[in-house]
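Hypothesis: this fold can be encoded by more than one sequence.
Test: take the structure tokens below, design a sequence, compare later.
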């Protein structure tokens, strides 16, 4: 699961920074997904250590009477632009001193290598699978790592257009195992009616509206 909306009025790419919590709308998203998952046979809930992921996972764990586990392998991807602002016609990408970080979109040159994200996210998935063997687990992470591990499992190239990620706020990307092998991948958006139009997959940037890809 990707976390819910974050309180980020300045449009900062917050990455792994502490202090970024769910907005009121984000908390509604988390509660909605918890209700959606309430009938499921969930025996393990684990989240990235960042506040927005912990706050998203908490109502899910509570609904199933579980303690919330933490796994640092579910963290957001590292990014050299962390803490900087992005927007329409302004922000970090307009500054020449930052252009050196944009030379290789295949690795990528601005952050954690995609292959490293695959390794850690696959490890987190397998650990959760083992913890909930015969049942279901929920892992709360962040857009880019979720999309990268899904792309790997579905045998797509890892470099991509961030605007085309199918990983909306509070969405569920489902990996079904048969034994120790992933046999299918699913996707659903139980809180899509709560997601603002400019934050949905494929939406164009809107002036005055923050959108930090890979959040």
């Amino acid at each position: 699961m990707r976390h819910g909306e974050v309180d980020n009025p300045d449009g900062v790419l917050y990455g792994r920074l502490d202090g970024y919590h769910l907005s009121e709308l984000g908390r509604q998203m988390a509660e909605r997904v918890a209700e959606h998952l309430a009938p499921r046979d969930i025996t393990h809930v684990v989240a990235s250590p960042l506040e927005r992921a912990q706050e998203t996972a908490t109502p899910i764990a509570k609904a199933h009477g579980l303690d919330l586990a933490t796994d640092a392998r579910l963290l957001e991807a590292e990014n050299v632009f962390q803490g900087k602002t992005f927007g329409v016609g302004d922000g970090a990408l307009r500054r020449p001193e930052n252009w050196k970080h944009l030379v290789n979109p295949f690795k990528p040159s601005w952050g954690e290598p995609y292959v490293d994200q695959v390794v850690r996210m696959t490890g987190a998935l397998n650990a959760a699978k083992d913890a909930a063997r015969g049942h279901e687990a929920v892992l709360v992470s962040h857009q880019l790592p979720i999309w990268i591990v899904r792309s790997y499992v579905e045998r797509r190239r890892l470099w991509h257009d961030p605007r085309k990620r199918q990983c909306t706020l509070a969405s569920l990307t489902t990996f079904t195992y048969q034994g120790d092998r992933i046999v299918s991948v699913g996707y659903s958006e139980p809180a899509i009616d709560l997601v603002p139009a400019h934050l949905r997959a494929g939406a164009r940037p809107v002036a005055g509206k923050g959108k930090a890809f890979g959040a």
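The mean pLDDT is 88. The beta strands are 42-47, 68-70, 86-87, 90-91, 136-140, 172-178, 181-188.
Hypothesis status: open.
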